[in-house]
């Protein structure tokens, strides 16, 4: 299979199909616990050293690694990275069995596992366990992903050869992968489960209780590693604030991080929508134009090319910007280009020039070198009273993510970054890391997700006034105090869930005792707050889930990679990582088995276990997405002797004609599809209005002369008439995509009211 040109060819040594991966997934409310076991058997006639490189969501707190060798279980120890690596090398050189699990030095979403000195016929089962907070989607779904795809990543000049991504891991056809995957999941929520969706075939979903507070499901047999396994879980209620108090580890010191009780606080601040949204700001759109953006969004049939989805998204964003702001568009690959030398004021002329350039964009700039365009953007002087809002769209295939995150962090006081991971295999470390470092938000677009809707949601957030004076206060019984473990929360967005962690120090109270935590903030001059009362009786959890998540939250705020973490933070990282047993870029899990019958003599045969990647697949050339001449467009029905123009909300007269069009059984994409919606949006002017011309008539499905003849008032302004019709067309034909055109429609309605 071909690989991306910057990666180069790799050698492939066949490995017999003797491996399997089994996963047990347990989801309770919005936290997932995962146990993944890799079963490996050496069916060769020589001792081998096997290497596995695999993806992991960067929010995962990996806390256990163990080996079962020929029926004997050996627990790994978490040690300082270089110490663990030296012990592994020493054990291998002396002929002992050894196993090493490391987080990549340059990206916390890639792991490498070394299986050393495995004798012929030996069987080993390697198990790792981790816990993870599940993100909340706009529609209320919890998103749980088991990563399977790890695409090649572009190396910038700073990247070290020490990255495990530099291993020439064989990339093979999916049917030739030497391992299989099985997965069983249990889901629990006290609020009840509404439904479960998955992008992969499942067995029948079972609900043991009548109230559907739990569910059990498993992957259907024959799963292929052609995509990440993604669950969308809908609870009946997800916006209930809560506090979970977890008992500490009995064997640890009572006042230590693992010994004291920990609390996980979740809030859903009820931030009102600002009316009207702010109209100032400098909006910079940084678009990936590397060769990999020419790939489809997913391997599903008729999946849109990444670059085409990105172009449509850019047009939507440009049309939705407010008059009076500033903007610019950058494209990057091995080099970068910008539409304008510096950000320009948003006018009809500059918007039209930008849209025309978007239409010509191609995925033709080579590799994914994102650091240089970021440095160029940050080096520009700020525009007074127009804070910078950066939107980054990329498939995230960069090796050294920590250096990119550090660059974004260094400019965090002058901007917010909203990041979007496009397609399977996008780096969660990069996408989440740059958003977290700058106080923005991150989104991932896979499968049937639309870049457009998630990008417009981020733009709405960027247009909202900032929330100020954020504070969290505790009301606890005398003798008990709370020490925050999470970084200070300074940025809040409407519809966002906040999760914070605290350590409870002091004398725990009787079982009936309660505490209260209050979340306060100021929005547009108004003081708002949210409170929740909770039981102080700590719950026992053998996995210490809350403690591990609290440790992970701390590590994410301090760990900038093995090379770049300041010395003052490295000490704290090592202490927390080793005390809590949660891996970091400075620690590794090591297992040495010295109880084998005798050390292995002679050289080892290296085996790099193949991995799947989407870029290695070949894709059929997509058919043209242009408008076919014979297609009948959905049209407006305007009476020859028109009645008085309906009010903005009274569009039922138009809706009846649309329903008739639906009955003609036109394919969905002909009525609501990208062609006509994007065409209509492309015609909108910067001030929100439309001109009455042939382009609009084509979208409306009428002759221009008929539209002009149907103007309801003598001497009426044709531009106002055209804008009213365009808005009504959106409501009648694009309701399913309303979240994408809501901002530009709001701008159009405001223009109609003014005229």
From TrEMBL:
Any Pfam family: VIT
Protein name in UniProt: von Willebrand factor A domain-containing protein 5A
Every VIT domain range: 2-132
InterPro entries noted in UniProt: VIT, VWF_A, vWFA_dom_sf
Cleavable signal peptide: none
Organism of this sequence: Galemys pyrenaicus
Domain of life: Eukaryota
Ranges for domain VWFA: 282-463
CDD domains given in the database record: vWA_interalpha_trypsin_inhibitor (cd01461)
